[in-house]
Design brief:
- It is a single chain.
- The chain is of the alpha+beta class.
- It has 2 domains: 2-73 and 176-228; 80-154.
- The protein has helices at residues 2-21, 25-38, 42-48, 75-112, 116-165; strands at 57-65, 69-72, 177-191, 196-210, 215-218, 222-228.
């Protein structure tokens, strides 16, 4: 019984390894995807495409397949960039708040001044402090924009990583190293109304490793996005 169980486990492992390494993953993936479209199987479509697309399908065919690109996983670097951007933003909070408080004090001084000369002097001070506040606040807004961009980039890459790995939760996902395989595939879709439109599909597969815990995380080929071309 134990040998039989080990044999079955071995077959399953081999299946997923072969699936991850198959030279033409787009053919099987797209066949299964458009079969799900025909059956109106939303669950299957959602399990294969990060942004599912359901045309009124009559037929489809592959027009061209780009080369398979292999690049180092970018999530660890994106995560580091997000952390650094957050630190830079937080470091600017103090100077911005301080400049704002000084400006408020000057405005209060003008409001409480009883003489024209006092108000004029306070206004000159306000103008000077307003210029300084604008500089600090401008820095703050730029740093906030940079942090939001870094945060969004890391979140998007994490979402694609988790989708390929088939994981809902993985605490170490931003620390995983390895390679990301990608392909661009152009397809033509003919709808039931007779119109034909071409789309570029972005496909990815994440083959990663948790070096700390010595665990491999092998993803699967998935469709990231359908982009209309015509």
């Amino acid at each position: 019984m134990r040998k039989k169980t080990l044999f079955v486990i071995g077959l399953l492992v081999a299946f997923f390894v072969i699936q991850g390494c198959t030279p033409n993953p787009e053919k099987g993936l797209l066949s299964r995807y458009f079969n799900a479209v025909t059956l109106n199987d939303n669950d299957t479509m959602s399990s294969m495409a990060l942004e599912p697309f359901q045309p009124d399908l009559d037929s489809w065919n592959i027009v061209s397949v780009g080369p398979e690109n292999i690049e180092p996983a970018s999530l660890p670097a994106l995560n580091k960039a997000e952390i650094e951007a957050k630190k830079a933003q937080d470091a600017q909070i103090g100077p911005t708040v301080d400049a704002g408080e000084l400006l408020k004090d000057a405005e209060y001084e003008k409001d409480t001044s009883r003489s024209a000369a006092g108000k004029a002097a306070a206004q000159r001070k306000i103008d000077e402090l307003k210029a300084k506040y604008d500089i600090e606040n401008g820095k703050m807004q730029e740093l906030k924009k940079a942090y939001n961009a870094a945060k969004a980039a890391a979140a998007a890459e994490e979402e694609m990583t988790m989708f390929s790995l088939g994981e809902r939760e993985l605490a170490t996902v931003r620390e995983l190293t390895g390679n990301v395989h990608s392909k661009d595939v152009e397809i033509a879709i003919k709808t039931k109304s007779g119109t034909t439109r071409n789309y570029k599909l972005i496909m990815k597969n994440y083959l990663l490793r948790d070096e700390v815990n010595n665990i491999n995380h092998r993803g699967r080929w998935v469709i990231i996005k359908f982009e209309p071309l015509s």
